[in-house]
Amino acid sequence: MVGGGAFITNLLVVMLLLALMLAITTAMAGSSRTLYQGSVDGWLPRYLNHVNKNGAPTNGMWTDLSFNLILLLMSDYLFVLAVSNVCYIVFNFLNLNAGWIHRIDNAHIRRLWKAPDWLLGAGVVLAFVKRILAWRGRGRLGHGHADVRHRRHRADHPGLRLPALHPGQRPVSGGDVGRPLA
Fold first, then answer.
1. How far is CA 64 from the centre of its chain?
2. Which of 62, 106, 110, 121 is least buried, going by the fewest C-beta atoms within 10 A?
3. Quick check: pTM over 0.70?
4. CB neighbour burial string for 15-26, b if at least 16 within 10 angstroms, e if fewer
5. How far is 15 from 75, CA to CA, in rounded Å?
6. Residue 179 lies in a domain
């Protein structure tokens, strides 16, 4: 892709794998800590509030890993990625709105630092921008994979124009698939 030869290609592959491992570690660290805190607060089973000598929530990590492996075995990895991104947007929407809701519910509590009103307002605006983006992307979760699965069957029908694929390239949804030849 960048024309650097085999060494550059292998270097990029190693860097991408390391970036993927970092992303997985970051996601698991955050979600396992959330599971731990939910257990400490009494919302989740007590099994999840175990930590090791360094303070890492090990039972939360094992539960997170097991749940993610089950999801990956049940579905396509792109679908799991899409669902996790939608869940992230929903979680971020709730977090951005939590600031002003907390301010309304607990206005009488003394704080060491109080966020300015404009910052809370900006958070609410960004929350609804993210909500609109999640709503606009809602159709991409199921429809894209159905097109990929059915494209193989469409190729058997004469008169349909399919895009040319390079060796090793997977077909993607969209484009001019299904349009008759002119």
1. 14
2. 110
3. no
4. eeeeeeeeeeee
5. 26
6. no
The Cα 33–Cα 50 span in angstroms is 11
| pLDDT single digits (tens) 149-174 | 444 444 555 555 555 555 555 555 54
Asked whether residue 104 is assigned to any structural domain, the reply reads no
Dihedral sign from CA coordinates of 51, 54, 60, 65: negative
Which of 54, 31, 56, 35 shows the shortest CA–CA distance to 46? Answer: 35
161 within a domain of the structure (yes/no): no
**Is residue 31 one of the residues assigned to a domain?**
yes
Helices (H), the chain: 5-40, 58-74, 77-105, 117-136, 140-154
How far is residue 166 from each of residues 3, 170, 181, measured CA to CA in Å? 17, 9, 21
Q: How far is CA 69 from the centre of its chain?
A: 15
Report yes or no: 177 and 160 within 8 Å, Cβ to Cβ: yes
Total domains in the chain come to 1
Q: Are 73 and 111 in contact (CB under 8 A)?
A: no
Which domain does 35 fall in, by range? 1-74
Tokens representing 101 are 């809701």
Mean pLDDT over the full length of the chain: 75
